[in-house]
Amino acid sequence: MRRTTVLLDDDLADRLDYERRRRNQSTTAIVREALTEYLAGGKPRPRRLAFANLGRSGHHDTSERIDEILAREWTVENLTGRAPTKKRTGTARRSR
């Protein structure tokens, strides 16, 4: 094997880090898999929903915690891969 250095913009690096944590795999394994699939001309895999296999999690209280699980998984960041934009709150000030 050979070592290669790749420079990523911040957004892509953040998405890669999120995917690494989500899949509990090394960055190297994820990049290697993505490059292999891309260079082979394969179609991108559809994004899997993180809660799709909850029945096999080994947890027995999943149905009781479904609101908590969905709130955690269905955040803007998780669905789009980027941080949510901040909304301005309060009233606008009028100049005198």
Give the key terms.
single chain, mainly alpha, Arc Repressor Mutant, 42% helix
Give the termini distance in whole angstroms: 69 Å
> If helices are DSSP runs of H or I spanning 4 or more residues, what is the number of helices?
4
Order of helices and strands: HHHH
- Main sheet attributes: strand count, strand direction, barrel closure: none
The CATH architecture term of the largest domain is Orthogonal Bundle
Shape: globular
Residue share in helix = 40-55%
Q: How much strand content do the residues show?
A: under 5%
In terms of per-residue confidence, which ranges show pLDDT below 50 for 5 or more consecutive residues? none
> What is the CATH first-level class name of the largest domain?
Mainly Alpha
CATH topology of the largest domain: Arc Repressor Mutant
Which class do the helix and strand fractions yield?
mainly alpha
| Mean pLDDT figure | 77
The total of beta strands comes to 0
Question: Over the alpha carbons, how many angstroms does the gyration radius reach?
Answer: 19 Å
Number of self-contained structural domains: 2
